[in-house]
Amino acid sequence: xxxxxxxxxxxxxxxxxxxxxxxxxxxxxxxxxxxxxxxxxxxxxxxxxxxxxxxxxxxxxxxxxxxxxxxxxxxxxxxxxxxxxxxxxxxxxxxxxxxxxxxxxxxxxxxxxxxxxxxxxxxxxxxxxxxxxxxxxxxxxxxxxxxxxxxxxxxxxxxxxxxxxxxxxxxxxxxxxxxxxxxxxxxxxxxxxxxxxxxxxxxxxxxxxxxxxxxxxxxxxxxxxxxxxxxxxxxxxxxxxxxxxxxxxxxxxxxxxxxxxxxxxxxx
Length: 268
Fold this sequence. Notes:
Largest sheet: 9 strands, parallel
Strand order of the largest sheet: 5-4-3-2-1-9-8-7-6
Structural class: alpha/beta
Order of helices and strands: HEHEHHEHHEHEEHEHEHEHH
Oligomer: single chain
CATH superfamily: Aldolase class I
Radius of gyration: 17 Å
Number of helices: 12
Low-confidence stretches: 182-186
Strand content: 5-15%
């Protein structure tokens, strides 16, 4: 089994949802990214979703947009992100790392070269917001060739035909967007999310993770009753942003302080 399969087999065996925190590579500074990744693992992260900075993050709300802008002031590139993953792997060989981002940096490197370099760096999966299923087969094939998962975002407004095309290509897990909006928006209808997650599970054997709109331990606990994974993004970035000017120790402590209580409530 690869690392993602191992994690989800373990969480299923322990009857709990996986915890997947999101951070933007290079935020609040490139030197903090790898220590922050290790801190997230110490706080209970099962998988790390690492955002690749891009100048037009159209799926992201203002919180993650600001994180991307901060990272771009340091000129953080895709190659820099892969170097961060390599650095993380020097101490951690077991926690899966999923890159989340946009097609442009991948296309600029070349799909096949990106896939090879990502696999060599220790990446486990890739989630690309703006590759529609109808155009994603080349990257799906390139990632599969090197053993990486291609993770798709399914939203409440995804047409049925596109959803089916996604499920045919998807691997690793399915990422369900829990709301109609960008990252950081408020979650409104938990029953609707549950119904959609259960529908996806009936159509695919892949785990289903839920993200967007999960702000605290209470929401995460409710989501974990039916989701295979809970993704925490904007709430974590906001916590980091609030103490970024206080130095590395404050950032790491704040991230740990937010994540560890969420991890504690995910046991079903």
